[in-house]
Amino acid sequence: MRKIILRRLLVSVPLLLGMTFITFLFIQIAPGDFLDNLRLNPQISPQVIDLYKKKFHLGKPVIIQYFYWLKSILKLEWGYSFTYKTSVIKVISSHAINTLILSLSTIVFTWLFVFPLGILCVRYQKSFIDKFITFFSYIFISSPTFLLAIILLYLATFVEFLPLGGMRSLNFDDLSRLGKIFDILKHLIVPTLVLSLGSIAYLVRILRANLFEILSSPFINSLKARGLSKRKILLHALKNSLNPMITIFGYQISGLLSGAALTEIICGWPGLGQVILTAVRSQDLYLVMASVFIGGLLLILGNLVADILLAWVDPRIRYERF
Amino acid sequence: MSVFKKIIKDKVSLISLGVLIFLYLGAIFAPFFSPYPYDEEDVEYIWAPPAKIHFFDFKRKIFFRPFVYAYRYKIDEYYQRHYYEDKSKIYPIKFFVRGFKYKILGIIPCDLHLFGADTKIYLFGADGKGRDLFSRILYGARVSLSIGIIASLISFSLGLIIGGISGYFGGRIDNIIMRIVEMFMMIPSFYLLLALRASFPPDLTSTQIYFLIVIILSFIGWAQIARIIRGMALSLRERDYVYAAKALGVSDFKIIISHILPHTFSYALVAIVLSIPGYILAEAGLSLLGLGIQEPEASWGNLLSSALSIVKIRIYPWIIIPGIFILLATISFNILGERLREILTSRQ
User: Fold this and answer.
1) How far apart are CA A110 and CA A199, in angstroms?
2) Minimal CA separation from A96 to chain B, in Å
3) A124 CA to chain B: closest CA distance, Å?
4) Can you give the pTM of this predicted structure?
5) Domain-embedded: residue B127
């Protein structure tokens, strides 16, 4: 097992390098750079700009700039954000926590509902409940998150209890510790719903199709012939339908930081999505690079976790692949 | 042909096909269906609500004939406009009226419109500049619906060719191409979308932005398709007819084009249909954030951008209508794609 993990990690290093280089290239191809904004500011002298230029190696070819960036990344110096006027690490870490909170609550909420709904569908197949769930899953799969966000925010205007976007109330600092947690939870409701409705719908559909397929396989028939109760048969089927769900769970982990960008922006959640939008708008190179880097890193980790989980659950994969 | 017949027979997919045809016809003949040009502003109709179509007026003895009243407004103490119907005069809705000039399909000059009235008739209400939301949605459909199809076709041709080459040759070429594909798949797509958009100057014309978005979207989309086509090509190249073609001295390129890729066609068709909604949504998302199609040009995304303000949705709920159109298009494409897949896989 340790060998597998090590090999996968080694393979992902060149991937990460290539990915960051592609991103770096694109941002550098762009006409103008992040010093343009500073140049427009009459209070900043040309000498200061030259200093910046030297400090960030701006005059040099792209590939050399990239290596400088790589060197500093390895030294854990992630550069300076020109828009937020602090170090990139500070900006990212302060916003990434918010995104993590949102993503984790989404994952918890999603998985809380997927299995009960999927089992309901299979237990009462072709009944009203099944059709009802499939119908809504179709709608939620197709509905874009931004539309869902807008509609839910609109509906939230009718509920006095629900806040309209943001993460904290105005009087957040005056609240007690419990009150603070409660306040954030209250703000979490709408964005969590927006993000999880779509993935619940998607997962329920996959689980349903999968369960149906397994329930018609021969080993279930033999279980039936032995006279197992319906419940126990369903449990056996569930265990066998876990594979694709685990793969998707891995994807969810990889999307922890980048999956919620648009929803965050619309719901005013102060996460990485907002950071990258402002960074992109002002061509804040180091900030964009760092966000893409972290996003890619998480994607690799997520895939790795999914693979390990799969190998752990399914012995067939364990023997076949490694 | 039999695939088409099966779709026609199935009620749900027939409906979604119908919706799509309806939407695309609306987009192609947008000027004919829309009573006003998409950029015509009217100060008297800023944020005017949707026109109420009446059929009865007992005082004037009108039965079963559609007509509208003109909107007038009062300004309250907060400088907020309150629209009400001016019932002193009625304006019957006329069909096939003459209006602003346009060209059918860009060629035949014409000034005929489906409907109109002697007063403003804004079916879906007006936006903040007093423009007709209905006309703007029709014109926006041209952008939003065509971007989906063009982008998916381009990324498919790219994915097919690259995936085909990679799978057919295998070995080192396959290894290199697949590593590149994985790199592209690893970049978080929304971040890549934003980063790519940022790498071009913000002050482009709408046509330039349109093509830019198409290119960006296909650039992001090709990797996934290439990977799947490559998997299919890997197994297809072991078939006897491919060996036969090789033995006959057919060139590699020709084998890929005429013996490998055609067999991926049924998969490709399903995947094209299923990928279009993603492209439509990506364009809408970009335009929604103000990075896509710019005013006064309309696209479903930038029409929805005024709905980002919660206060505005609360006061003018009709600005969410473009979102309903986006939903209609994506649901129809998804249902159609799913059904196509069912039909095609059951046939094999």
Assistant:
1) 7
2) 15
3) 22
4) 0.83
5) no
